[in-house]
Amino acid sequence: MSTVQARPAPDERRWKALGVCLAAGFISLLDTSIVNVALPSMEHGMGASQAAQSWVVSGYALTFGLALVPAGRLGDMRGRRQAFLVGLALFTVASAACGLAPGPSWLVLFRLIQGTAAGMVAPQTSGLIQQMFQGAERAKAFGLLGSVIGVSTAVGPLAGGLLIDAVGTDDGWRWVFFVNLPIGVAAFVAGLRLLPRFAVPAGKREEFDPIGVLLLGAGVVALMLPLVQEQQWTGREKWALMPVAVVLLGAFWVWEKRQGLRGHAPLVDLALFSLRSFTLGSLVSLSYFAGFTTVFFVYTLYLQNNVGYSALDAGLSVLPFAAASAVGAAVGGRLVLRYGRTLVVIGLSGVALGLLGVVAAVELVPGRGVGWASALPMLIGGIGSGLTVSPNTTLTLTRVPVHRAGAAGGVLQTGQRVGSAAGIAVVGAVYFAHLANHGSAGTAVQLGLLTAVGIILAALVLAVADLRERHVHPEPGRAGETLRRGSQEGGTEERVRGAS
Questions:
Q1: Could you tell me which of 257, 277, 300, 252 has the C-alpha nearest to residue 153?
Q2: Each residue of 339-364: pLDDT tens digit?
Q3: What number of other Cβ atoms are within 10 A of residue 214's Cβ?
Q4: Please, are residues 228 and 425 in contact by the beta-carbon 8 Å criterion?
Q5: Which of 27, 91, 312, 475 is most buried, by CB atoms within 10 Å?
Q6: How many other C-beta atoms are found inside a 10 Å radius of the C-beta of residue 58?
Q7: What is the per-residue pLDDT across 432-459, written as a single tens digit (0 to 9) for each?
Q8: Is-contact 422 459, C-beta < 8 A?
Q9: How far apart are CA 280 and CA 236, in angstroms?
Q10: Residue 381 CB: number of other CB atoms within 10 A?
Q11: How far is it, in rounded angstroms, from Cα 409 to Cα 260?
């Protein structure tokens, strides 16, 4: 078997192949937010309890996060094309099963499977981009991926509102899942023809790391369960899982280090964390997703429950954020080579400014006019989001060797999922606590949004610290040099390394 060559695919096919990856990424990320506005329809249409509704949302996030790193590593070892197609096929079938579910318990089960499949697809996308593109084209491809991330997350409430408005309350929730079918089938068929076949490395065959998978999986479950079930599990006992998570993740770190010292292939190459670009970028990503995804949770909840907006109206209210995010990500992908981490600092500042504008709109224009009053701040926040997600992804992964791209992408996106769960738990706790104790919905959503701004400012501090550190120490240490050479083998240009 020939050794792997991470050369770009032919021009006429790689951009089409990227389209396949983006389509799959779109529907898998769309399902993180489109379901939120369909929960009342599930309750009305099939009698789903609050616990079942909670697991429909949180179960997807949980299994999505669990699958990312093992699936990324599997793609690195056995081929990303195969892992991508298997994950996409499973996601499409699971979507159909969710839409046909005869009862709440079946829906939760199929939703767990759907989340696992989404976690299989996501790391292959970033890995395939690193294999198919290099230099400025890679930055542009990650810019398009950033557009998809921003749009799919923000447009979910709108898409769900449109479907429920068109089909009706009783069965509208089913079409939230059926909408994935034509996109999934088309992407799978196109993927069979367009996705490049890169050879698996010859020579020593790397073994999978089942103990590492178990330790990481148990640690992620212990970490995420109390976060995603924060509103449903009453009492403080759930937080006892947090120290358990610390112990399990610490054991995972020790095990992976031992694997490396013994010459065995680890699930996660810990040398990745010697790269400042990867470590700081992952932390920025985790913090940012903890802040920005909560906006659609508390703000749309406020509009529907307290202002009287329909699901469709609530979705339309965040459309400026989605549209501006797509534009900002595309622009960020083109400018990241020139401005590097400075672009992320500008983007995070824009998001914080936009959210403060929404807080002001809630205060100054209470009632149904708040959606229009928030349009401009949402636009500013969306542009900032696009300038954050796309450049940060490019800069975080730029020095990662291509043969570790899947696992590295899995680590990055696991942080995003954990950040989203933690952010929703924290911001939701602030929102619901004030609502329960004081009854002022306007103040509750303002406090929730201000909490989100505080989390985003934490990401901004990390980005500024990284930027300042680069001016003092522009080059990483020896371990970083090793990984950088691996990245060069994958085609990363010197300009990207300098900009990061």
A1: 300
A2: 888 999 999 999 999 999 999 999 99
A3: 15
A4: yes
A5: 91
A6: 24
A7: 888 888 778 889 899 999 999 999 999 9
A8: no
A9: 32
A10: 31
A11: 20
